[in-house]
Amino acid sequence: MVIRKSKSKNALDPEHSFGLPLSQTYYEAACALLEQIETKISKPVTDKRYKDLLRVSAQSALLPALFLVRHTIELMLKEVLCLKDIAQKGKKAKIRMEHNLLNLWDELRKAACDDFAEEFKENIVTLSTILECIEQPINELHSVDEPGTNFRYPEALEANRLFPINISEVRSQLDVIIELLGELEKAYMATIDYNDQKD
């Protein structure tokens, strides 16, 4: 398959994800694949050969799904960090090229504590609660895929560190992380809007 520019009005352009942040497009793909895996695993089938075929099909989709999950989180962290840069007056958004989730998370966690400790005191959900809920799954993903390549190049992955996996739990944790990072994103957007109104 050759990927090239197309003049067709129906062509997809990966650089312009229909106005959605790139993390959102990966999130939707991850959710679709996780749902497909879950459907295959839970499908009631009496024919053992067909059931085994469904299970093998589901397992072969697992690493791509986990890659999409991890990449969604990495992109969302980077997007929120860019907003943090913009919110700090006079700073240009820094493009972060690294793939280490812990480093990205550590930078965002420290910045959020400095920038929003007071604002979140009034909320029902405290900043520390948000940060704790994000940190645990990021630590788990990092422990399995520190360099960000293990789900792409599975020969580096130790299978015994990965399995068994509860697909429903992966999906629900991804949803929580995206929702909570979205709260930080909204807080930085509000800061940017406030700064723009002052100027």
List strands and helices in order, with pairings.
Blueprint: H1 22-42, H2 48-87, H3 101-116, H4 127-144, H5 159-162, H6 167-198
Helix pairs in contact: 1-2, 1-6, 2-3, 2-6, 3-4, 4-6
Largest β sheet strand count, sense and barrel closure:
none
Distance between the termini: 50 Å
Number of helices: 6
Mean pLDDT comes to: 81
Low-confidence stretches: 1-6, 8-18
The secondary-structure element order is HHHHHH
Helix vs. strand class = mainly alpha
Tell me how many strands there are. 0
What is the global morphology?
Answer: elongated
State the helical fraction. Answer: 55-70%
Number of domains: 1
Which value, in Å, is the CA radius of gyration?
Answer: 20 Å
3D structure, described in words:
With 199 residues, this protein is mainly α. It has one domain. The chain has six helices and no strands. The longest helix has 40 residues, at 48-87. The chain is elongated and about 70 Å long. The termini are far apart. Residues 1-6 and 8-18 have low confidence and may be disordered.
